[in-house]
Amino acid sequence: MMHYWVGNLGHFFVITSFVTAIAAAFAYFRAAATEDLGNKNAWLINGRTGYYLHAVAIVGVCVLLFVIICNHYFEYHYAYSHSDKKLSTDYLISTFWNGQEGSFLLWMFWQALLGIVLIHTNKFWEAPVMTVFALVQAFLASMILGVVLPGISVKIGSSPFILLREVMQDAPIFKTNPNFIPEDGTGLNPLLQNYWMVIHPPTLFLGFATTLVPFSFCIAGLWFKKYREWIRPSLPWALFSAAVLGLGILMGGYWAYETLNFGGYWNWDPVENGVYVPWLVLVGSIHTMISYKNSETALKASVILVIATFILILYSTFLTRSGVLGDTSVHSFTDLGLSGQLLAYLLFFAVAAIVLAIVRWREIPSSKEEAAVYSREFWIFIGVITLCFMGFQVLIPTSFPVWNQFVGLFGIKSSLAPPGDQIAFYSKFQLWFAIIIAFLSGAVQFLWWKKIDVRTWMQQLIIPFVVALLAALIIVNVRKVFDIRFVLMLLGGLFTICANAKIIIQLMRTSPGLSGGAVAHIGVGLMLIGVMFSAGYSRVVSLNNTGMMISKDFSDEFNRDNLILFINEPRTMWGYDIEYMGERLVPRYHGGYVRSSDVVTTVDKDLVITKIPQNLEGVAYKAGDTIRVKGEDTYYEIQLRKDGKTYKLHPRAQINQEMGGILASPDIYRTVSADLYTHVSSVMNTTEEPEWSPLQEDTVRQGQQFFANDYVTVLESVERVNTVEGVTLGDQDVAVRAHIRIQGERGDYIAEPLFVIKDKMVGRISDEVKDLGLRFTLLSIHPETNTFVVGVNTRQKDWVIIKAMEKPFINILWIGTLVLMAGFGIAMVRRFREFIKMRAKGQE
Amino acid sequence: MKKSHILIIVVIAVAIGIMVGTAGDASTYVNFDEAHKLAAAGKTKDIHVVGQLKKDAGGHIVGIEEGADRVSFSFILVDDAGKEQRVEYNEPMPPDMLKSEKVVIVGSYAGERFKASKIILKCPSKYQEEGINA
Which of B4, B10, B29 to mutate to test the interface with A (most CBs of A within 10 A)? Predict the structure, then answer.
């Protein structure tokens, strides 16, 4: 049955959200522009009502989309193309933002909430700020409208509530049966079935949404000619935004590190660059705002940077969603035909903000005298310029596709493409900027606002610098850091850590609440050191030292950097004994690993039947029970052993039969000083029939021991069974199953070959124990002697080829990230308290 | 000269430096003939080639060969000028490759062989999605 009501109600909410956003924007605009208090209040109430209705409509849209996804209403395109019935609840949630429409919704949802928070915290600024907010919401709501303008047949937006049959109008099934509902959806990309994909997008979009807050205050300040006052309410939000956006970006990097096998957390893909650039500019704007609060400088710079941050967020949205990156990015969204709308969104706010800033430019106060060279404001400004350069350098190549399109409009053919080796290209520039940032963020902390005597400054600096230098010398020699760029980066990082640690020690006695900046800069120093080691000194440890090629079909590089591991044959790597233990499957709805050799596969790749009783993280299965597994994933258990301790690694491969390839995801063994990053680089071809040795026959009784390829084996029992998978048994037919136990190197295995007499014909169904490379067949039954003939074939042992890399000190990067976030948090609390205090005094 | 003027000059200089540096490293979109000439002239920098997978008269993709290690493969790309070239890639086939309407490869010629270091797929937008299994 078609569930039309969900979609109809959804469409209604979408249109309501669009209309109420425009109404709220208009009412707030009138409230802001009206002088008369009575009228102003009336318009304010209108605006607020409109905005609340808008927020309710947005929540309604979100709830209905969840209803469609969670109830598997596959008549809707969104559910059909992004989910299936097997997805567990957390991945059903991430289905929500898997499509473009859902991610727009997520963005709008956060902004709707932020707007309500602002209405309740900022009375004075409500009208102008909410005008901007409601306008932005109107543009976003238009992206999911899905309305065709009558007459000119221009489609506006792409609705998440579109029916499958409306998308696939040409599909024959809908011509014959318009009410056809598919049994199951096409599912969620397995790479996205990862817990980071449940929390990374909401965090990132909260970061996107929060950049709107300082922007709105800035526009309101320019509009109301309150050039100084907008800084105070914006600053805590800018800090919050930098923390959340930064965290969101890093979560994306962490997901890539854990899931993709390119061996890193950052690939300089346009999609990543698109958020990195605004984040840098946002951090720059925080510095100029703080500079203004303390010494009345850099107000104009703050205006420029706050506007630039938001415009860059819109620009990155345009880049990733308009299809313009199609030729350059590995993972941009599919083109929904929204490019015109996205461009209008970008240009509207860019032009409006820039025009407003130009009109007001001369009125913006700026300090008459120049900043002294030995002053904090001067060097903060240099640091901000460096941050902007970092962004600029990334922005230019990322914008090549836009440039090609743009000059193409004037008939000029441009075929610029981003550099082939993006990582080397960007690192080359970014590294030097990062070194400058590291030294500045240490040294400038000891400069005073306005002016300082050089001697006093040097006296302050000398101790942290000497400590950093000594530490760097030791580390350089111990870790053999002999590249001058890396030495400088290490020294810079250590210097900023020492310098800011000194500041914190001084502040602890008097006012710990002011330590946010120092903590954040320590985080930056740690991150730089972590990046330098983990990326600069990442090395392959799975070197093939045997002197034998894995195969002459492989390239020399592949033969050198990869290890072949045969099952249960220990080797050494990275100072550990390493041993491949066999294939594993994972249950879909709970934890644990299932030995592939312990289960029987069925027609459905996601259902297996266990041959032995199992207890998987608290869930017990009896022999013969069905376990629901993730059929597309195969895990390869690899044990690392050292000093009597054992660690397990489970790198994963998704074997795609129709495409003939494997998609490998790494597993990471974490030690304090380094990560061991391991992924499979080649696996056995499961579709090819292996070469079996000639059959060995054993005549045995029940309970009798025999040897199968030197393994102690017992025919435990033989029993009659009534059902056989894939075979229909008639009244006259007989099926018998043998139960054979084999003692392997690593525990017992069960084989259950079948002997079937169907329509007076004999059929034998063998059973293979993959881990041992053995196949058992029940050849014949002799009731007269009560014996059975068991046939055994052997084949080459299972193997897997792995590549492993050492990522030194990567933990310092993650710790640094958390420290940076903590610093932003402390600073945010401080600035928010300031704001509350001043608001209480009537100076909002 | 005022400090702010010096600063402005420095900023402009660095910005120009960045742009020149970027332009020097930038790759270009070319066809196979141009790529071959570039390689013959000793320019081994990676270039981008846009094209489509080779199809037979029935619209079936032909010429895809899986590597011995199952983690590499090669395929025939027809560039916009119509030239065919076998492209080798040292990684497994990216998902959706066979569904893509356009393929962008980043790589260069090594002699007569073209080795791709990256493949970017342009997939049809969802409004052109055709098949559904009933």
Answer: B29
